[in-house]
Fold this protein.
Amino acid sequence: MVFSEKFNKAFELLMEDEGGFVNDEADPGGATKYGITQKTYEQYIGRKVEIIDMKNLTVEVAKEIYLKNYWNPLSCEYVNEPAIAICIFNTGVLHGLQTSAKTTQRVLSLLGATIKIDGVIGGETTKHLNMIQAKSFLKLFHKLLLERIETLVFNNPKLSKFKRGWENRTHRLLTLADKSTKIV
């Protein structure tokens, strides 16, 4: 499978957060490798998988899953600004596709775009994303993600053990706005 340069960079940055095999009982996602949950891997290969299957998941298969399940549904390849595409993608992995898409649309709306907040990044959303200033978008996106993390932990205090990691990951995404936004 061939991956675009933009996707490869997004995947590389994602792996800084997702890493290898983890099986934390407190994590609602269960066993993961490269950030791929057992359920996601089962859906991808069409059968039940065991912990050993998770441990044997290859990075190449993980990339294919991320492309098919996150990058493409979030239309990241059509977002001109790599930093914005990377943030939308990374957020989709951590918080889910709908959360990433709706947060994206809320930011665009708050920045003046007349856009439907429907949780789907299609042509209209990408059109607005390609007209927006990256720093403004990323800073507001960052703020909304931090608010979401606060709400998640408030509503489910058991998630507080993940709060610092989620916040650190969100802060790293914001640093994309402070670097040259031409990542690739």
User: Anything to note?
Assistant: Residues 83 and 181 are 6 Å apart (CA to CA). The chain has a mean pLDDT of 90. The first helix runs from residue 5 to 18.
